[in-house]
Amino acid sequence: xxxxxxxxxxxxxLADEDHxxxxxxxxxxxxxxxxxxxxxxxxxxxxxxxxxxxxxxVTDLRLRFDMxxxxxTDRTCIIVVEVESQDITIQMGIVVDAVTEVLPVKxxxxxxxxxxxxxxxxxxxxxxxxxxxxVKILLDIDRVMTAKEIAxxxxxx
Length: 157
Description:
Order of helices and strands: EEEEEHEEEEEEHH
Helix content: 10-25%
Largest sheet: 6 strands, mixed
Number of helices: 3
């Protein structure tokens, strides 16, 4: 597998699934805070937050991945990530159930995303980390949102 994919990943829970994103994309992790809703945005866009004077759009990853919505708990948090799409780079928050740990992932622990056929969209999956008897779904955070959605978020912020 590609050595470029090896590195440190921030892992987090969504439902009972372990996910990870490259630590290089993570700017910070913050607790839940008031989110101001923005009209006429998709359901998975929760709104915007004011983070030290900067307006940041916030997306709920559960809703983005068509998982059932749950009430936020004291473990729920917002991961502020830097997303690049075409020529746009924005900071956005993603709501996750709980952050678990930072894991080093070796190239030999990577596996390609499985093929589920044409009905399942796996373009946002970077690969799978098969480690210690469990599988972590590693996300390409730049592909979780489309360029059009990112441009709309940029306008909302």
